Amino acid sequence: MVAASLGSKVTIIERAGLGGSAVLSDVVPSKTLIATADAMTRTLDAAELGISFRVNDGEQASVMQADLKLVNERLMNLAREQSADIRDGLERMGVRIIIGHGTMLDNHTIDVDRGESHEVVRADAILIAVGAHPRELATAQPDGERILNWAQIYDLQELPRELIVVGSGVTGAEFASAYNGLGSKVTLISSRDQVLPGEDSDAAQVLEDVFERRGMTVLSRSRAESVERTDDGVVVTLGDGRKVTGTHCLVCVGSIPNTTNMGLEAAGVDLTPSGHIKVDGVSRTSAPNVYAAGDCTGVFALASVAAMQGRIAVAHLLGDGVSPLKLNQVSSNIFTSPEIASVGVSEADLESGKYQGDVIKLSLHTNARAKMRNFKDGFVKIIARKGSGTVIGGVVVGAGASELIFPIALAVAQKLHVDDVANTFTVYPSLSGSISEAARRLHVHM
Ligand SMILES: Cc1cc2nc3c(=O)[nH]c(=O)nc-3n(C[C@H](O)[C@H](O)[C@H](O)COP(=O)(O)OP(=O)(O)OC[C@H]3O[C@@H](n4cnc5c(N)ncnc54)[C@H](O)[C@@H]3O)c2cc1C
């Protein structure tokens, strides 16, 4: 879209559907599923707000359930609609769309396998954005029925009674949270001490506490060695020999870049040992006129970063104003309940000595709006550069954290001082009041 709007003649080659996995199997379906789970969690908590549900004869209604068939139909329809909108948008911009599998013949030429026929496309420049696919364990092969990967889980017609989630990274934690909210009995198997390895440790602790309070079983320091089907479910064998049984198992153990068998070697595109495409700050690969963006580069597996890398590549290629990708300004969100959003420098970066900073963590327990809305869990954390007081990072844990992180992201990107954030009016009562309050606590009296 960006290249076309800048006047280029653009062809897009896609083997599945427009919008990629982000739209068809990853971001859009998972966040739509989570929206249903959130609605159920809020409804369950409604009693604490003084709401009760009664049927006509005065008898209290006691059962709330998700019709997973309908939920999954809704989310797949939404994904298809989103994909169709993207297709329409591209066509309106004059982009030529070829459905087929692309293989590079050299750094200017791609062979497209369209099933019945082949087409050779030549271009002045090529942007590779082939994404990644779920990593599989040899001893836990998905069958699409009981043992599933994240792309297959939307085929379920009924809510799993007992779901075992293998892997407690972002994807595993999001699905564990969602299915717990939808009413499944969830067991989360995590090979580490804490869920969400690599994320803010305080945030991971809040999430673990919430998971356990809501009846989820979290097995930490437990590595799944194998997943097998039984007559009526699955059994997961752990490294220490323990067995965990359930009706279904979702395996979320990372992803593999789609960089094999697509002629990258012939085009002179170098890969890292993990199979990702090597890129520089403006998305250039080792081959002249070949750029790469998104999950296939292994920079940050986020749709927002993929899009930014693509925009930077196009701007660089076409001589438009461009500045390199700034990884210390990326904001991201984990769509668990509560959500965990973060931006910029982390507390772990301070502990490793990479940055020097001051940290303030303010619980949402004292926030009036959080109390009114019955939000029980969460905090705001702000990190300021030592000496200068510039905001360099932050974490928000709580309902709607994905929206609340924006003021901190803006402060990080614009290098605002903590006093700038502290002295900006917030609405009273509001959750964002805790952001300015946290900044206020980092004020240094001169
Ligand atoms: C369950 C899940 C939830 C996620 N949620 C979020 C989220 O909430 N927010 C967020 O920012 N990120 C999220 N992500 C990450 C996000 O999905 C990825 O970062 C994003 O999809 C990367 O975009 P991409 O363009 O690199 O690749 P993709 O979206 O994977 O697109 C790559 C496309 O290339 C096509 N392709 C591959 N090889 C070829 C070939 N040889 N020829 C033709 N076509 C080919 C594929 O068919 C695919 O359509 C999530 C990921 C998962 C797994």
What does this molecule look like?
It is built from 12 helices and 22 strands. The protein is of the alpha/beta class and 446 residues long. The strands form 7 sheets. A 5-stranded parallel sheet has the order 8-15-9-10-11. A 5-stranded antiparallel sheet has the order 18-19-22-21-20. A 3-stranded antiparallel sheet has the order 3-4-5, with no helix packed on it. The termini are far apart. Bound molecules: flavin-adenine dinucleotide. Flavin-adenine dinucleotide (FAD) is lined by residues 13-16, 20-22, 26-27, 30-31, 101-102, 129-131, 150, 171, 258, 262, 294-296, 301-304, 306, 335.
State the main characteristics.
single chain; 446 residues; alpha/beta; five-stranded parallel sheet; five-stranded antiparallel sheet; 22 strands; 29% helix; globular; binds flavin-adenine dinucleotide
Briefly characterize the structure:
The chain is 29% helix and 23% strand. By secondary structure, the chain is of the alpha/beta class.
Write the layout of secondary structure elements.
Layout lengths: L1 H4 L5 E4 L5 H5 L2 H18 L23 H25 L3 E4 L1 E6 L2 E5 L4 E5 L3 E3 L3 E3 L12 E2 L13 E5 L3 H13 L2 E5 L11 H13 L3 E3 L4 E6 L4 E5 L4 E4 L1 E4 L3 E3 L32 E3 L10 H15 L13 E4 L4 E6 L2 H5 L5 E7 L4 H5 L6 E7 L5 E8 L2 H13 L4 H5 L10 H8 L6
**Broad structural category:** alpha/beta
Query: How big is the Rg?
Result: 24 Å
Q: Count of helical segments?
A: 12
For the secondary structure, the number of strands is 22
Biggest sheet character:
5 strands, parallel
How much helicity do the residues have?
A: 25-40%
What small molecules does this complex bind?
flavin-adenine dinucleotide
Low-confidence blocks of residues: none
Walk across the major sheet and give the strand order: 8-15-9-10-11
| Principal-axis shape | globular
Mean pLDDT: 96
Please report which band the strand proportion falls in: under 5%, 5-15%, 15-25%, 25-35%, 35-45% or over 45%: 15-25%
Cα-to-Cα separation, first versus last residue? 50 Å
